[in-house]
Amino acid sequence: MGNHTTTAVPAPGVFLKDELEERGWSQRDLAYVLGCPEQAVNMIISGKRGISPEMAKALGKAFDVPAEFFVNLQTAHDLSKASDPDPGVECRAMLQRHFPIREMIKRGWLEDTDSEMLSVQVARFFKVEKLDQVPHLRYAAKKTHYDETPPVQLAWLFRVRQVAESITVPAYSERKLREAVEQLRRLIAAPEETRQVARLLGECGVRFVIVESLPSAKIDGVCLWLDKQSPVIGMSMSRDRIDNFWFVLRHEIEHVLQKHGQKTECLDVELSEDGAANANEPDDERIANTAAADFCVPTAPMNDFIARVRPFFSEQRVVLFAQRMNVHPGLVVGQIQRRTNNHAFLKRYQVKVRQFVVPAATVDGFGQVAPVNL
Fold this sequence. Notes:
Helix content: 40-55%
Strand content: 5-15%
Organism: Steroidobacter denitrificans
Structural class: alpha/beta
Number of strands: 5
GO molecular function, one term: DNA binding
Order of helices and strands: HHHHHHHHHHHEEEHEHHHHHE
Shape: elongated
Radius of gyration: 33 Å
Distance between the termini: 35 Å
Pfam families: HTH_3 (PF01381)
Protein name: HTH cro/C1-type domain-containing protein
Mean pLDDT: 91
Low-confidence stretches: none
């Protein structure tokens, strides 16, 4: 049995005994009133038996009080006798209330251990000394920009950073990255060529990490810097389509080229892949969106094609236009789908590329756990 911290509450029988003395009744008298054996009354008064809901109703009628009075007496007594719960219950509940702790354990980001060690792990995961310094768990500590990032997205972001720290690459070169963009553009017509992305980025000094998204996170990618010379591109690949992959990748590359995300990570959620301007969009996102859209399908020819062909987007015209642009038809199809709001149009061309990207990249998720130590 565990320790008891609740003040002991007398058994309901103590109240019954006092009440009988007050009324001048014997136990046999009460048994007669209740219409039950005298032994049943004796066992309640001696504390050997609790008060059942049925007995509570009967006693309520006998003493002219609500039945809940006796129910509450019994409940208070039972609670005072109950063992204290595992102290970890409160801690685990607090952590799970704010972060997807169970999912993080399932994914191998944290070990399933006692609450004290779990608290230490969570603090290390978020790179703070104490649990009460973790974003969203703070009480009186100063807030940071992380407090405005939903917890499930924040957990994903920190996992990307952890995995990236385990990768060794040459010194970052902006010149090489710009040259790599041209190389990548020549690969865009063949889905299987996506396997070269991790290598090309690594040769430029860019750490490329794929971390499977957490449920409901809706993250596409992130650009962050371990320091001012160490850029990281993280992707979730939650939308496994060739057009989404190339758009998100080029979007994050532009963030790196523009040195976005050095102070605050550029966390991209549900990116719009047509490069359409949004009045509320920050300048860095507008710049990255424009570069990504033009990379996937050059904007001017795409606009011209839409204007000439709409509403008769035949498969033959789409394929011929894609060949002329030296892109996979899936990229053109994606543009048409979004501009016409017809997401079923030639959907078979939006082929999956995760199968090619993952084997050649540093990956956490999709059945793999990156070797990261807390």
